[in-house]
Amino acid sequence: MNVAANGWLPILMLAAGCTATGRGTSAPPPRALSAADEATWIARGRDTVAPFKSRLMAALQAGLAEGPDRAIDACRVEAPAIATASGGPGVTVGRSSHRLRNPANAPRPWVQPLLDGFITTPATAAPRAVALSGGGIGYVEPIVLQPMCVTCHGATLAPAVQARIAALYPADQATGFAPADLRGVFWVEFEPAALAPP
Questions:
Q1: 42-52: per-residue pLDDT in tens?
Q2: Residue 130, helix vs strand vs coil
Q3: What does residue 95 show for φ and ψ, rounded to 5 degrees?
Q4: Model-level pTM greater than 0.85?
C-alpha cells in the first residue's frame, strides 16, 4: 500500500505524537500471524482507526482555519477524547512516533519493534497486524508527513508556533520533518475479549 496516497493522512501528521496513552518499555517482538489472519485483522484495524482519523481530521481542519495555535490546542485537548471514543470495550486506539511531542504518547512495547521496522525501511511501510502476548491482536498503520504539516513539524517554524510548542512540550522532538517523512503510527490494541467478529 502506498501510505502517502491514503486519503485520511493530510492533516493527521499535526497530531501524531501530541497526546495519547502509551508505554515506552521494551518487549519481545510481536508474533507474526498467518497471512489470512493478518489480512482479517488489518481490515478490522483500518475500520477501527477510520473514525479516529476522520474526527481528528475535522478537528484539526477547524483548528487550522483559526490558526496554528488553535490546531495545536485541538490536537492537545480533543485528540485524546477522540481516540478514546474510537475504541470500545477491550479496544484501545492511539498514535505514537519515534520523535515524540508528548512523552505520554511513547510507543507501547509491542508497537516499538513495528515502528522500528518502519523507520528502517520507510518506503515499504504498510499496515501490519500481529499477535500479542496474552492473546490479543495489535494493528499499526504508518503516518506519512504531508506538506501542510510542516507548519508544526517542519525544520523552520513561525516564532509564535515555536513558542507555543515549547511552552506546552518542553521536551519536544517532533520538528525537523519534511513532506513524505514517516511521522509515526496509528495503532489499535484488541484485547482477547474483543477478538470475536464484530
A1: 999 999 999 99
A2: strand
A3: -135, 155
A4: no
